[in-house]
Design brief:
three-stranded mixed beta sheet; 191 residues; 10 strands; alpha+beta
């Protein structure tokens, strides 16, 4: 098996945030910590305005900035390509949260450590999908071997105007982008 990563189809996502809630519940995260976040964006102006959603989490990058910059080695990359944080080694310096261009590691102020999506490793070790994948009622999220996902979804991209450039970190993220998500005139909508 090659490197693991996520596929997200913005044409299917309805912004229900079920993936976000399932992740938060499975990881028993406090209110101020989030590992997967659904954001809604508006493009255009009335009367031709429209919206799109982006359900984002750690992209398990080929060259993760969090791993390269972690002073203690708490941020690590597993053989399967997933990136994780060893919270027993984390000193809570927040370097990972500062250097990730996608802002995905979260700092837990109560525990004084950073955390992030590990692709639900314990679920995967038991033959299950990450919780966000199975929770999505629209089946907009998939997880697996990136090469297999790329072959299955040939039109997938790794960059959108709403995301930072993929050149530096090379995320293991594939996106099927709606026409709205491909536009650069976006504004985040707070719901």
């Amino acid at each position: 098996m090659g490197k693991l990563g996520f596929y997200f189809d913005s044409t299917l996502c309805i912004g229900c945030r079920t993936c976000q809630v399932a992740c938060k519940d499975r990881n028993e995260l406090p209110d101020h910590v989030i590992f997967r976040e659904v954001q809604t964006y508006q493009v255009g102006v009335y009367p031709t305005a429209s919206r799109f959603n982006l359900a984002a989490t750690c992209n398990h990058c080929e060259r993760p900035a969090c791993v390269e910059n972690c002073p203690t080695g708490a941020c690590q990359k597993a053989e399967d390509g997933t990136v994780f944080i060893d919270q027993d080694v984390c000193i809570g310096c927040r370097t990972c949260t500062a250097v990730c261009p996608y802002s995905h590691p979260s700092y837990d102020e109560d525990r004084r450590v950073s955390g992030k999506c590990d692709g639900c490793k314990t679920f995967r070790d038991n033959g299950k999908n990450p919780v966000c994948v199975d929770a999505c009622p629209m089946r907009a999220i998939e997880f697996g071997d990136v090469d297999e996902l790329r072959a299955k979804h040939g039109d997938a991209v790794s960059e959108l105007p709403v995301l930072p450039s993929a050149a530096t970190t090379q995320p293991n993220l594939l996106l099927h982008a709606s026409s709205e998500a491909r536009r650069s005139d976006f504004n985040e909508v707070v719901l």
